[in-house]
Design a protein that fits this description.
The chain has 374 residues and is mostly helical. It has helices at 14-21, 63-76, 80-89, 111-118, 121-133, 135-145, 149-160, 171-180, 189-210, 232-238, 254-267, 289-293, 303-308, 343-348, 355-372; strands spanning 169-170, 218-219, 277-279, 281-282, 311-312, 325-331, 334-341. Helix 2 crosses helix 3. The radius of gyration is 21 Å and the shape is globular. The structure holds calcium ion. Calcium ion binds next to loops.
């Protein structure tokens, strides 16, 4: 994964996306609001998704897991017996660790293939239904957080097809497996393992607070949950009770999902009213491609510098007051696709560190909006 930052992908799309993108899972643990939503590993193309029903031994007999349980209990003021029993009830998922190992570098990415999986008639029709069913809430979220309905609709559609594929792994199993048996072959194994330990801790704190057994929630093989596939720490930091019923439910309550996704974007710096992308034409006469691609997806160039380096804009793009990034999307052996990405494009990648992911969200949202008007 040379140019792509990525985070996690939705449960339903993990295998595909990882295969297509061949990038490394990352996590926004550092700057901005605490961290990103979910996490994924890179996957070989033909790999099958792991079977959630196959579980190995429990962690009750693992000294490192029980020691971690005691640390969590002390740190968070939880009952040590409860934490030990919770982690001790977790089972190793034997097929999950290998899913975290990045694919070999140089694997071909293919935007058209990627797009075809997410921007397709079934998902668009489901998006239209979701938008119609939740039009008032989407409008309220846009008014409250400044995030357009079509971006929220795009995210929830790409993540889980509006709740259809929320993952079938017990979250306690997925997080414990990645916390205590993260594959050493991963180039950043220690960092990733620490990340999943922190997520396991966040999960236990959440469950303790809500009173729901930690053995019940289901999610992706990386422990992402609900319609928006939030990781536990993101639930703690960004989820909101947007229908005011006194509880946050990202599995069954579209209002909470919509508000939480919008709040997440706001927290990561979404600018109301700003487009995410503009069309761009490369002018071979003036093109300084290496220079334009060097900052990857980080908006770096003002319009003047951008166009002088051969990335031609028109209309709205030319009038954009902020910085731009040249986004290159590979198409296998064919010519790449290029767009100009704004700061809001970058913000979408804070949900999942992939420009292919962000483009799918934008294009699914747009297609749903267009279908609504018909
Ligand atoms: Ca609620």
């Amino acid at each position: 994964m040379r140019r792509l930052l990525r985070l996690l992908l939705p449960a339903a799309v993990a295998t595909l996306a990882l295969a297509l993108l061949a990038s490394t899972p990352a996590r926004a643990t550092t700057p901005a609001p605490k961290n990103l939503k979910h996490d994924k590993g890179a996957r070989p193309v033909a790999a099958k998704r792991p079977d959630a029903s196959r579980a190995g031994p429990s962690y009750a007999g693992r000294e490192d897991a029980m020691q971690f349980a005691d640390e969590v209990a002390a740190r968070d003021g939880l009952d040590p017996a409860w934490v030990r029993a919770s982690i001790g009830s977790a089972r190793l998922l034997p097929n999950v660790p290998r899913l975290m190992v990045p694919a070999a570098p140089g694997a071909t990415k293919n935007w058209r293939a990627y797009r075809g999986r997410f921007v397709e008639p079934v998902r668009i029709a489901a998006g239209v239904r979701f938008w119609r069913d939740n039009a008032d809430t989407l409008a309220r979220a846009e008014a409250s957080f400044g995030v357009p309905a079509e971006i929220i609709v795009g995210i929830i559609g790409v993540e889980t097809i509006y709740g259809r594929n929320m993952g079938s792994f017990r979250v306690i199993d997925a997080l414990s497996t990645l916390a205590f048996d993260f594959p050493e072959a991963h180039p950043r194994a220690a960092e990733r393992q620490a990340f999943f330990r922190a997520e396991l801790e966040s999960f236990l704190v959440l469950q303790n607070r809500s009173g729901e057994s930690p053995l019940l929630p289901l999610g992706s093989y990386a422990g992402a949950m609900g319609m928006p596939q939030f990781m536990p720490s993101s639930i703690g930091s960004f989820a909101v009770d947007f229908d005011g019923d006194g509880r946050i439910d990202l599995v069954n309550d579209p209002a909470d999902v919509i508000g939480s996704v919008a709040n997440y974007f706001k927290a990561f710096g979404w600018t109301p009213g700003m487009a995410s992308i503009f069309p761009v034409r490369l002018d071979p006469q003036r093109l300084q491609k290496e220079m334009l691609l060097a900052p990857d997806i980080v908006p770096t160039f003002n319009v003047e510098t951008f166009t002088a380096a051969g990335a031609a804009l028109d209309g709205e793009g030319l009038a954009h007051p902020g910085l731009l990034a040249l986004i290159e999307l590979q198409n296998g052996g064919d010519a790449p696709t290029y767009v100009a990405g704004t700061k809001n494009f970058y913000v979408i990648t804070r949900y999942n560190w992939s420009s292919y992911y962000a483009m799918s969200v934008i294009e699914l949202g747009r297609e749903v909006r267009l279908a609504m008007a018909q």
